[in-house]
Each structure stands twice: as structure tokens, then as C-alpha cells.
Design a protein that fits this description.
By secondary structure, the protein is of the alpha/beta class. It contains 15 helices and 13 strands.
């Protein structure tokens, strides 16, 4: 008898790494409905799941729900509590911001794929500097206190945790006292490698590349200032709340490309001198792997998930401090390093994170988690 499976995700608006994971899970189990707080149909994420059965919460009926969800986060228990998952054998939750976990029941098991425990609850930098305003800080501190307790309680209801990196695995252990296994996010390595090989013959003016969600934790201002000081061309793709500020501090050699297609992004990666990432506590970081798949190196801050993907001196180089001076030093030394990094080494490293690896590992984990012969797996996850 076929298992009844449901997928659960924070919300569907932007299309980033978490949504790529969800999309792969949807490809594995296309008949599984996707439960979410809300889905903005004409957004990048909404368009990507047009073929899926989306089941939204009552919160979707509120006007401007996408803007209200952050200040109204105290409603999350009521939002998730309004869904009934008792008819499912298995719930697979894709969890990061919205405490999207804790859906198991007497006859329902839950596997939580944790992108990270909510960053705003545990002192990690977030997209907006909410502590800047005194009243907002007071409100946020009070609400987050109770949300941390709720998050912990929900985490104890999960049958099995999967972490997207060793970095996140440590966070799950620290904040939830739960064990987990690591299955890295899926990356379209084979397609990216093929695009990279084609792009080699079309090399243009050398440039460094950065991009993604232009938000505070990604430290794009640091990257811009360092490239400006060294005087090297920099291209940045993506949009976000920091765009206006970043344009103000950019010099003449910085080009903003806005929202671009996957094909354009891959071509930019394949043609750049190196992709630069500077977040201090990245959960995993898919863009470095995508860049290496095209045969190009990565310049990364020495921390977080970057340590699990970039091989120093072989597929890229690290800078030790998240400062302009730290990145400037590496940029000035890069001419002597660049020639030592071989495209084939970059591609070989990226292959470890290929999408098929994710699919195989996730299927195997589900098979074990839902088979009574493997009941010890759940017991181990709670120790």
C-alpha cells in the first residue's frame, strides 16, 4: 500500500536554496500536497510550483499577508495548528524561518529537513536589523522569548531530523538537543558542468561575481568596498532590501544585474574569475557549489557551511576575517593563486553535491524511517 505523504514549507514567495530543496522533494513525490502559510502565485516561488497542489493556511486570506507574517509571528502556533495531518503516514517538513516542524501524530511520522533553526531566535544575523529601533527591539525580544520555547517544543515532536550541513547539525544539537543526519541540498551539477564547458569558448572581460538575496547577513557591502578598493570589476545579480544602499556605495566598476534567469546566472558563473561569498555564518551555501560545477573558483569567508564545500588552494581561497581589509588581501593575492586552481578539480568537488546524491540519500532515509525493521533509527535520533 502506497504511503500518504505531505510536504510542509514555511511560505512560497522568493525562490532560494530552501525552495530548491522543496522543488526536488516535489519531484520525488509529485502527488504529495504542499502545505504552507501562504503562496504568492505570481512570485518566483509561486510560479515554480504551478503544477503542485498547494494548500495554504487561513493567514493567506489577510491582506498584505507577506508583510504581516514577520510582525505577527506569534500567530505561528495557531497557523500550523489549523492544519490536520492525521490522514498522512509521513510529513516531510522543510524548516527554517517559521518554526515549520512538530507535525507528527499517533499514526504520522515526521522527517524535518532543517535548513537552520530560526536565525532570529538564536542570535544569528537576519535580513533586517530589527534591534535598531528600541520599540521594535522590545517587542521582538518579548515575542521571541515565547517563540523559542515554542520552537523547542515543536522540535521534540519531530521523529527524525535531517540537517543540510554539519554547521546546521551542530545547531540542531545545541538548540534542540537532538541528533540528526546530514544530507546536503541538491545542486544541478551535471547541467552546470555542461554549461561551464560551453561557456569557456566565450570568455569576456574578466570580472568577479557575487549575488543572491541582497540582504544584511550576506555582507555584500563588504564585497563591494573590497573590490572598489582593489579596483577590480564586480558584477552582482539579485534583488533585496539592501539594493538601494549597495548602489549608493558602489563604484564605477560595480554592475548590478537585478533578477536574472537561471541560465544567465550559470553563464555568469562560468565566465567569472571567481565567485565571492562573505556571510559570517552561512547555513550551507549553494552558490559556491554551483560556481565550482562550472569550473570556476570561489573566494569565501572562512566560516559556516563554506568550510564544507570549498577546498582551500584547490577549488578556492578563504579570507579569515569578515572585513574589507581581509577580503582586499585575498583579492590582491588572487593573481598568483588563480592559475593554480584547475577547473576539473572544481567540477570534481562539486560532483559530491549533485542532485542525484540528494535524491538517493533522501529516498534511502525515508525507506529506513518508515520501515518497522529500522525502529532503532528513531530511538537514536532522540539520544
Amino acid at each position: 500500500m502506497r504511503m500518504k505523504i505531505a510536504l510542509v514549507h514555511d511560505y512560497l514567495k522568493e525562490y532560494g536554496g530552501a525552495e530548491r530543496v522543496l522543488h526536488t522533494l516535489h519531484e520525488i513525490w509529485p502527488e504529495a500536497p504542499i502545505y504552507t502559510i501562504f503562496c504568492i502565485k505570481d512570485s518566483p516561488a509561486g510560479k515554480s510550483f504551478e503544477d503542485a497542489e498547494i494548500r495554504e493556511s487561513w493567514f493567506r486570506k489577510l491582506p498584505f499577508c507577506e508583510k504581516l507574517i514577520s510582525p505577527f509571528r506569534f500567530l505561528l502556533p495557531a497557523i500550523w495548528g489549523s492544519f490536520n495531518f492525521s490522514q498522512y503516514d509521513l510529513v516531510i517538513s522543510s524548516a527554517s524561518w517559521a518554526v515549520t516542524k512538530g507535525f507528527s501524530g499517533p499514526n504520522t511520522k515526521e522527517i524535518c529537513y532543517c535548513h537552520t533553526p530560526p536565525r532570529y531566535l538564536y542570535g544569528y544575523e537576519t535580513s533586517r536589523d530589527w534591534k535598531k529601533n528600541f520599540l521594535v527591539r522590545l517587542y521582538g525580544t518579548l515575542v521571541n522569548h515565547f517563540m523559542r520555547m515554542y520552537d523547542y517544543e515543536q522540535a521534540q515532536k519531530v521523529n527524525f531530523f535531517i540537517a543540510n550541513s554539519r554547521e546546521v547539525q551542530q545547531r540542531i544539537k545545541k538548540f534542540y538537543q537532538r541528533e540528526s543526519v546530514v544530507i546536503n541540498p541538491p545542486v544541478e551539477v551535471k547541467r552546470l558542468t555542461a554549461n561551464g564547458l560551453r561557456q569557456m569558448a566565450k570568455s569576456s572581460q574578466p570580472y568577479f561575481l557575487a549575488g543572491g538575496r541582497l540582504e544584511l547577513p550576506k555582507n555584500f557591502d563588504l564585497i563591494i568596498k573590497a573590490c572598489r578598493e582593489v579596483g577590480v570589476p564586480l558584477k552582482i545579480y539579485g534583488t533585496g532590501s539592501r539594493l538601494k544602499y549597495l548602489k549608493l556605495i558602489a563604484g564605477p566598476k560595480v554592475e548590478f544585474l537585478g533578477r536574472i534567469s537561471d541560465k544567465e546566472r550559470q553563464e555568469l558563473m562560468a565566465d567569472c574569475r571567481a565567485f565571492i561569498v562573505a556571510a559570517e555564518d552561512e547555513d550551507f551555501g549553494i552558490t559556491p557549489v554551483e560556481t565550482m560545477a562550472t569550473g570556476r573558483p570561489v573566494i569565501a569567508f572562512r566560516g559556516g557551511g563554506y568550510l564544507e564545500t570549498v577546498v582551500e588552494g584547490k577549488t578556492g581561497v578563504f579570507f579569515d576575517e569578515p572585513t574589507v581589509a581581509g577580503l582586499v588581501k585575498v583579492l590582491r593575492e588572487f593573481d598568483g593563486i588563480e592559475g593554480k586552481i584547475k577547473p576539473e578539480d572544481c567540477r570534481k568537488q562539486a560532483e559530491k553535491f549533485d542532485k542525484q546524491q540528494f535524491v538517493n540519500q533522501f529516498r534511502e532515509f525515508v525507506d529506513k524511517a518508515t520501515n518497522r525493521k529500522h525502529a532503532t533509527l528513531e530511538a537514536q535520533s532522540r539520544n
